[in-house]
Amino acid sequence: MKTLSTTPDAMIRYSALSSFAGHSFALRPTFQGVVASWFKQALQDKYPALNVDFTQLAIAEPLSHENSPGMPRRYRFMAVADVMIQCFIDSTPVVLIQGVHRLSVDKNELSAHPLAVNMAELQSIINDHSGLLIAAYQQALAEFWSDRQNGSLAPLQWLSEVLRMALGGAALMQNRVPALPADQAVVLAVVASFPDRDNRARGTLETPVHAYLVNIDGTENNVRRRFQLPGVVLITRQMPDHLIVLGYSLEHGVESFSSVQAFATCMLTRVLQVAPVRLLSWSLHEPEGDFITGLARTLLDQQLRNMVRVGQAAQAGKWSVGRLEQVLDEAAAMFPFFSEQERPHLENVISVLPEWLKQASSVDQLDYSRLMSAEVIWQRQTRGRTFLDGIDALPVYAEKMIRQRIERDHPRSGLDISHIEIHDVGVENLQLPVFSDDVLSFVEFVLGYRGGWPVGLIAVKDRTGAPVPDWLTSGYVKSLVDELDVGVGYIALLKGYLVDDDKQVMQREALYAAQLRIQLPLLALEKKSGGKPVLPRRACMWSPRSCATTRNGRSAMTMCACGPWAFTPMKGPELIRRRTCLSSAR
User: Fold this and answer.
1) Do 72 and 200 have their domain in common?
2) Which residues contact 143 (CB under 8 A, 6 or more apart)?
3) In the chain, N or C: fewer CB atoms in 10 Å?
4) What is the pLDDT of residues 6-30, one digit of tens each?
5) Residue 127: CA atoms inside 13 Å, Cβ hemisphere, count?
């Protein structure tokens, strides 16, 4: 089976991260929005009585310093936030002249109405604040990650839970390739269950378990830099005869190392590949309290450091205002939890998503993501088997029976029954000579055959126009169908697989229950997102249970719905009724 990622824990990480859509967080701040808000606050402090639409504020600058004879002065307009950002990029103070420049909400190029704002004070606000724009954006991002909306979970708390879920999920993940040894899985589970250092120490006195963050000390452009490796934790456990050393991050999943030094060498190599930091040294820090919260903060710290690098690059390269805004907003987006090698796989998956899933709500997409993760894990556990494995569909079974009978009656005839058509002639009106001619494939005719149908009303032809063998007459076809009795044979086949063999029955029952529990809610979400009528969500939450009862000496299995709906066996197709259960004897 092809994998979605080169990292075994990618599915767990993707499942955990997708829960972001399920929370009501504040809007993530944008760089221009922060600059505009900062300017608004500074201007209101100077002019508290100013009552205007601040989103429409612009600095009006004349296109020429002097009026042309007979021509009025024309103005161009610049958003104040853009002026401040350009001032930051140029590292040059802006100059505003009273009587020449204007602050206005009126975008009339010929007569921009000036607000009662002194240009010297406006110039001071812009120049004093422009050098601190990156710091203001960093502060806004830090507040975003700490902000609670109506008492809900703060984004930083959500991130901590994501890390906790992913770490615990990696410990419990089955069928991991390569397999995670049991002692290593136990270490991960201990750390995920006991993130507090003191609690963990009390529970692992004989074989201590430690969870460290990694401190890096180095120089960047002749400036000393100290930081912690973002999203990386070193986990160790001292066993009686050896030391377990594990590295974990959302980006790389679980990694095993022969020693702490081997872990450090790997981490420093990665730092040198992505950051211009030199003369590196490292140390370990085991945080007091919940280390997972500290691990989450290392990701936020990395994001804030990147803001400074982007600002410096913009000043050195004289970027445009639009480019700086775009790069900063991209740098402030969700952390890069997947490596560059993994992203093509994810992008390929996203590109082939069905349209209905792209249009679904974020909550439904989250539900679908969880169910698909469960489906993938289930298929890996069962190696792609289903409860119908080894049981042919009825048309396939019928075709096999037909071929076997023809081969027995007419060996080496070479007849391709897929070319054979049965013309079923019917009389529509006895008074008028009106007939119908229904053309069926050989298999369709066998499955839909009506016993006692006159031979004279059946014709056998080859759809390619070739002549049929002399022995393939309507009488032979009718006799073959009567003798085969496909329906009875198929029921016997099903009984052998699903009733008589107790071992197979138990295995198939378990597969059926697991398959239905996942695929029925998936179908409901697809119908719902496609705008089609569908059962309530609760009706699709099925829970199988095996009842310790017997019927006629055989065990009985009952499938019950958690909600008020269930399938009921009826004459004809299965119908859905309220508060009923499907009970099938075996």
Assistant:
1) no
2) none
3) N
4) 455 555 555 555 555 445 577 889 9
5) 11
